[in-house]
Design a protein that fits this description.
Strand content: under 5%
Radius of gyration: 15 Å
Protein name: Reverse transcriptase domain-containing protein
Number of strands: 0
Shape: flat
Distance between the termini: 24 Å
Number of helices: 3
Structural class: mainly alpha
Largest sheet: none
Helix content: 40-55%
Order of helices and strands: HHH
Length: 78
């Protein structure tokens, strides 16, 4: 779920939507998890390959790892 740089969205709107989804998932007995990333300051300092290895070690979904790898490929923060 992305709310940054979208018209009429704010962090409050995003948080409200997430809490609603979490409460519904909890009521349904589903597992709830979240990852929040703000790479703006640390992006160039982060070893992208090491991050993917660590996430893989902790059994993150292959599709997420593929997406992150693609996203971080040849990308730099300026």
């Amino acid at each position: 779920m992305q709310s940054g740089f979208r018209a009429n969205d704010s962090s409050q709107t995003a948080l409200t939507a997430l809490i609603d989804k979490w409460l519904k998932a909890n009521d349904d007995g589903d597992l709830i998890g979240a990852v929040f990333l703000d790479l703006a300051k640390a992006f160039d300092l982060l070893n992208h390959e090491l991050l993917i290895q660590k996430l893989n070690k902790y059994k993150f979904a292959y599709t997420l790892l593929r997406w992150l790898t693609s996203y971080m490929d040849d990308r730099y923060q300026k």
